[in-house]
Structures are given as structure tokens and as C-alpha cells.
Write a structure and sequence with these properties.
Layout lengths: L2 H8 L5 H17 L4 H8 L3 H10 L5 H12 L5 H12 L4 H19 L2 H13 L3 E4 L5 H14 L3 E4 L4 H8 L7 E5 L6 H12 L3 E6 L12 E4 L3 E3 L2 E3 L1 H18 L1 H16 L6 H6 L1
Helix pairs in contact: 3-4, 7-12, 8-12, 9-12, 10-11
């Protein structure tokens, strides 16, 4: 149940202090989502323990769980200016480098805990057997599509990366998709309408649909055969895509293992081409310099 709905349903039974917390969260949940229990208590004029009890009253296993619920609720709704304001409140004059890196470490850990290993394995099999692989992402997620597309294009013959096109062009790129194909849709808050429409189109055409997204509440999930959860977060106006990139790395590695000898032969041919056309600097060239 949505956090604000829970608060509204229980409002009449709250104590005076709990009602202060409830009203603040209802009116300023974009700010409350990144406050500690102590700071939220100070802001509304109650004790930290009252805030913790409030979270428990709503059914959460401690304040951090309620805070995560608030963060999930707002991430796809904040404008760029609101993100900057939240970032100032969140980091202030702290050691930004250490904080951001530690948060990325935490997102990779949470990705390991929350993604379905069964969906991951089935996604790898679907990709390995597909006639054509479509990779769809727009805006900041387009960089992830480009990375995945580069390596999959080395492994497979038919890979199509669709990113940053107009809506009409998207359907022109997808109109041949069918039951023998796979589409990998990548989207994180704020979720892309174009990704939802593209995956809906592909699903209707009978293609296998794989989502790489941040939460089971993502609009991509209901459209997908397999969901790969990779936790993301906002760092000011930019999105942290460290965990999604790790998920994509794992997808590429698992595909190589799945195809085994076939991929070995492909890369053996590529190595000959790279050597023949002097693509990479050789060790002898580096020693001469």
C-alpha cells in the first residue's frame, strides 16, 4: 500500500506527536525521504523515538524501511530542480566522494539481494536463443544500451540498439520484431514513457521481453517475461547507474559462458582482424616508447 494511503487510513489513531510527523510527511515527503529519524523529529518537534515508533505503527521494520518506502515513492516524481534541493539537504558540506561511493556499494549489495537469479538465468537463455536482439533505452539509460549493444554485437549477428529516437522512428525500428526475438528494455526513474510503449509493442508482437529496472513497482515489470532488478539512485541531477552497469556486465559474462565454444571461435576471428588492421597497440610498440 502507498505510504500516504497508510498514513491517511491510520491518521485518526495517531498520537499528537505522530500526527505532526504524518502531516509533515504528507506535505513534504520529498524532503522527509532523505532525513534521518533524528532530523525528522527535530524538524517537527518530537523525539527520535517517536519517529521510530511512528514507522513501526505503519507496519515497517524500523525507520530505515519507512525511509526507503518514501524514497521509492518520490524518485520518479522529482524534477531536476527538486533533485538539486534534495542533494543539498542530503550531502551538505560532507565528504561527497566517500558518501557517493559508499552509496553505490550499498546499491550493488541490494541488487544482489533483490534481483531474481531465476529470471537472470532465463533471460540469458532467451538472449542466447533469440533470432534478433533489440536493446531499448533512452535519455540517461541510453549509455547502458550502448555498452550492452557494443559487446552483444561482437557476440551475435543481429543486435539492434534503439535509443534517443523520435516516437515514430522507434516503431519503424521495431516493426519487424516477432516471436523469435528478444527485447531488453532499460529504464530507471524518472521512467521513460517511450520505453513503456516500446515494450508494450514488442510484447504484443510476441517477443520475449526483458526489463532492467530498479524496482518491482517500475512500469516495465508488468510488461516483462523476466525482470532484472538493479538498484539505482539519484545523485543531484544525475542518476547513479553503477549497479545497473554491473548487472549488464553479469549479463554479458553469463551469455559468453552460455554460448561457450561458439563465442571462443567468434573472438578468435576478431583477434585476427584486430591484429591484421592494427586496432590495438602491441606490447612491442609500448616498449619502444
Amino acid at each position: 500500500m502507498n505510504l500516504l494511503t497508510q498514513i491517511n487510513d491510520k491518521m485518526s489513531g495517531f498520537s499528537k506527536g505522530q500526527k505532526l510527523i504524518a502531516h509533515f510527511i504528507t506535505e513534504h515527503y520529498d524532503k522527509a525521504a532523505f532525513m534521518t529519524a533524528s532530523k525528522l523529529g527535530t524538524t517537527v518537534g518530537v523525539s527520535e523515538s517517536t519517529v521510530v515508533r511512528f514507522a513501526t505503527e505503519l507496519g515497517y521494520d524500523g525507520y530505515p524501511k519507512m525511509q526507503k518506502a518514501m524514497q521509492e515513492m518520490i524518485r520518479d516524481k522529482l524534477t531536476s530542480l527538486q533533485r538539486i534541493e534534495v542533494t543539498k539537504s542530503r550531502f551538505g558540506n560532507s565528504d561527497i566522494l566517500s558518501n557517493v561511493l559508499n552509496q553505490d556499494i550499498d546499491k550493488i549489495r541490494r541488487t544482489m539481494e533483490e534481483t531474481s537469479k531465476e529470471d537472470f538465468q532465463q533471460a540469458v537463455k532467451a538472449v542466447s536463443r533469440a533470432k534478433t536482439i533489440y536493446i531499448f533505452a533512452v535519455r540517461s539509460s541510453a549509455a547502458l544500451a550502448s555498452f550492452l549493444g557494443y559487446y552483444y554485437s561482437l557476440i551475435f549477428e543481429n543486435v539492434k540498439v534503439i535509443s534517443n529516437y523520435g516516437e515514430t522512428e522507434i516503431y519503424e525500428k521495431l516493426f519487424r520484431i516477432g516471436a523469435d526475438d528478444v527485447i531488453i528494455g532499460i529504464s530507471f526513474p524518472r521512467y521513460s514513457n517511450a520505453a513503456v510503449k516500446a515494450m508494450t509493442f514488442a510484447r504484443r508482437r510476441g517477443a520475449k521481453v526483458i526489463a532492467i529496472t530498479d524496482s518491482m513497482t517500475s512500469p516495465l515489470c508488468s510488461l516483462s517475461d523476466y525482470v532484472l532488478i538493479a538498484k539505482s539512485d539519484m545523485a543531484s541531477v544525475v542518476d547513479s547507474l553503477v549497479a545497473p552497469l554491473s548487472m549488464i556486465n553479469a549479463l554479458i559474462v553469463a551469455t559468453v559462458v552460455e554460448l561457450d565454444k561458439e563465442v571462443e571461435q567468434t573472438f578468435a576471428r576478431l583477434e585476427h582482424i584486430w591484429e591484421e588492421y592494427d586496432v590495438y597497440r602491441s606490447k612491442s610498440e609500448e616498449e619502444q616508447n
